[in-house]
Design brief:
Shape: extended
Number of helices: 23
Distance between the termini: 45 Å
Low-confidence stretches: 44-59
Radius of gyration: 39 Å
Number of strands: 11
Largest sheet: 5 strands, antiparallel
Mean pLDDT: 84
Structural class: alpha+beta
């Protein structure tokens, strides 16, 4: 069985002048996990290197340039998702000068655009003000001195005009002075002017001072403003075109520079956390053992021999031996099994050096999903979706890396569909195939396995057969979990845990012998003998009452850590848990058969509704058939996936996942976000 990938600790002594290209190389290789000075592993004890209190911020100017370039891309609405950090390099002095010139050009364009926009807004506002009083031909001073009227002119939010008019209805007249209703004249009796003032304040009314002898707006003033507004609009339009030309001309250069400066900023970020003296940086990190020689050769070439590299096996790292440092866990798989890695890491990382459960997960998930979701047509939908995702024809972001999973469950569902004769719920299409296959072995019949509701008396045996196969698969999965647990404990030299306890050899013998005994009773009509009881009792005793035996093998004292009374009570509880645990772990797989049958019933229901709506020859029948199958594929597909994951986590992983390791997370250059 495959184990987690073998790792080594590398220690690099890098001169200050070489630190940038070295970190750039590490980031692009994407297979080196830094150990920073905050939690550094000490190979063979402490290294005599003085740590600087804070790394010098050598690239602050580059960080500022990066920020300006990114802001420019955001403001110009340039998509940065196309930047591939692997094709970027740390900027040279030439590129720094290029970036400075480009930023200067854009800043000038931006300032001209802002000035033109501000001028346009000012002229527009001025024109609105003038239009608001264009029709006021009577001197305002004469209106203001009326003995019985209170006149107010001011600005409001246009959206509040109707609200003010409604609020002052009956107590004042509200007249819009401009077409956009941003200026109003409010006329009321002088007796109620104070109440009117209070109401107007609630709506943000801003009084406008009108010159004493104001008597309307001359026509030439309006014409002059219209001319200035047209000129201002033309200037804004010209700058919009200039902005578009700037994007078209400089887009590629902007993206290249943004990628380069982003890489430099990230190099600076990781460099700050490294141990260093005035002239030398110390880099330590974990790497896959097969990559070590390539690293040493490439780094020696990059630095022209100005680098010291030391490699350490895991057992040579003092902090690892003392339990202060965990070796990160890396899994090595092909594309199919690799797509299931996230399912494992979502539960937890295996402990370094133990069995890698991912290949088991890939096989079990594929088989269980296929049994529970058996339909050839619906399975082909998953297969086609997986192929399109793999070819990047359909893009679902990070979900595309799961394309092999969709292809695998598509194939397994299709195979199960061939056996049950289901193709989008109908058995007619696959009937010739079933007759041909069954004809090779005797009497032809269709389907090969009849799961759909029928009057056939043999269907009940098929149903129980499905449940039997599901339980048998559950036995295999539970057994694999127990075997992995025992091997892991032997690898880690925890021999007591490998022998005793419900997940050790004692629990496994109890589980295996009990299953064998049940099969002998059912198939061979075996009568329970004394030796059967003795074997089961001994295995059960060491599974439930394991504590003193484990502590004795581990040379721990006292044998009963919390006294005999506590030991007895906890052992009785453990005894019950062994029984209930193995029983539930086995019966839990009955749901596999239940979902297989429920899937067949759902298909049968969809076909029945299709027939009731006129069959596939009618529009209504076709709509029901398409929508029904789409509902099954999406909703039941999700439910089945969740159930399979649950079986993996609770019935398989629970046997050996008692401790979590640390996932290997190599340093990579992060893609540029549009935020």
């Amino acid at each position: 069985m495959a184990r987690t990938a073998q790792m080594k600790l590398l220690e690099l002594m890098v001169l200050k002048e070489d630190i940038s290209p070295v970190v750039e190389y590490i980031g692009k290789k994407e297979n080196f996990q830094f150990v920073t000075k905050k939690h550094a592993a000490k190979p063979n004890g402490k290294l005599n290197v003085a740590e600087s209190n804070a790394a010098l911020n050598l690239f602050s100017a580059d960080a500022e340039t990066y920020s300006q370039l990114k802001s420019a891309c955001i403001e110009l609405q340039i998509d940065t998702s196309s930047i591939d950090m692997k094709n970027c390099s740390a900027p040279t002095d030439f590129e720094r000068n290029e970036a400075a010139r480009l930023i200067e050009s854009y800043t000038a364009l931006k300032q001209r655009n802002e000035a033109a926009s501000e001028n346009f807004v000012k002229i527009t506002d001025a024109r609105k003000e003038v239009l608001a009083f264009a029709n006021l031909k009577v001197p305002y001073s004469e209106l203001e001195h009326l003995s019985f009227l209170s006149m107010k002119i001011g600005r409001i939010a246009p959206s509040d005009f109707d609200k003010i008019k409604f609020a002052l209805d009956g107590s004042a007249q509200v007249i819009a002075l401009g077409e956009d209703k941003s200026h109003i004249l409010v006329a009321s009796s002088k007796k109620g002017r104070f109440a009117i003032d209070t109401e107007l304040k609630n709506y943000g009314f801003v009084p406008v001072e009108i010159p004493e002898n104001f008597n309307g707006v001359p026509e030439d003033v309006l014409q002059g403003l219209d001319k200035k507004l047209a000129e201002a609009r033309e200037a804004v339009d010209e700058l919009v075109v200039e902005r578009m030309n700037f994007v078209e001309t400089h887009k590629e250069k902007l993206l290249n520079l943004l990628g380069d400066f982003s890489l430099e900023v990230q190099i600076d970020s990781i460099t700050k956390d490294l141990e260093s003296t005035e002239l030398v940086y110390r880099i330590t990190g974990w790497i896959y053992v097969n990559d070590v020689q390539t690293y040493m050769k490439d780094l020696d070439e990059i630095t022209e021999g100005r680098i010291v590299i030391r490699e350490y096996d895991v057992h040579e790292v003092v902090d690892v031996v003392n339990g202060k440092e965990e070796v990160p866990v890396k899994l090595r798989h092909g594309s199919f099994v690799k797509s299931f890695e996230r399912m494992v890491f979502s539960y937890g990382a295996p402990v370094y050096g133990t069995i890698d459960p991912t290949p088991f997960v890939a096989v079990f998930f594929t088989i269980l999903f296929g049994i529970m979701f058996g339909d050839c047509g619906q399975g082909l939908c998953f297969l086609i979706l997986g192929i399109l995702m793999s070819l990047k024809v359909i893009k679902f972001g990070n979900w595309n890396k799961f394309a092999p999973i969709f292809m695998a469950i598509g194939i397994s569902s299709s195979v199960m569909g061939l056996l049950t004769g289901e193709f989008f719920g109908t058995e007619k299409i696959l009937e010739p195939f079933a007759l041909w296959v069954t004809g090779l072995f005797g009497h032809p019949h269709a389907p090969i396995l009849h799961l759909m509701p029928s009057d056939d008396p043999n269907s009940i045996y098929v149903m129980f057969g499905v449940f039997g196969v599901a339980v048998a698969i559950g036995f295999v999965i539970n057994t694999c979990g127990l075997v992995i647990n025992m091997i892991n404990n032997v690898i880690r030299k925890k021999y007591a845990e490998a022998l005793f306890g419900k997940n050790g050899l004692a629990g496994a013998v109890f589980f295996w012998y009990l299953i064998a005994l049940v099969l002998r009773i059912v198939l061979q009509h075996h009568k329970v003998a004394v030796y059967d009881i003795v074997i089961i009792a001994i295995a059960l005793f060491f599974a439930a009452f394991a504590e003193p035996f484990e502590r004795a093998m581990n040379k721990e004292k006292p044998l009963l850590e919390n006294g005999f009374g506590t030991y007895l009570i906890s052992s009785v509880v453990e005894l019950i848990e062994v029984f209930s645990g193995y029983l539930s772990n086995t019966i839990s797989f009955v749901r596999v058969g239940a979902f297989a049958l429920s899937h067949a019933v759902l298909n049968f229901t969809i076909m029945t509704l299709t027939t009731m709506c006129g069959g596939v020859a009618s529009v209504g029948g076709i709509i029901v058939l398409i929508l029904g199958n789409a509902l099954i594929i999406v909703l039941e597909g999700m439910i089945v996936a969740i159930q399979v994951i649950r079986l993996q986590y609770y019935e398989f992983f629970s046997k050996f996942f008692h401790e979590n390791g640390r996932e290997f997370k190599p340093f990579v250059f992060e893609p540029i976000s549009d935020k």
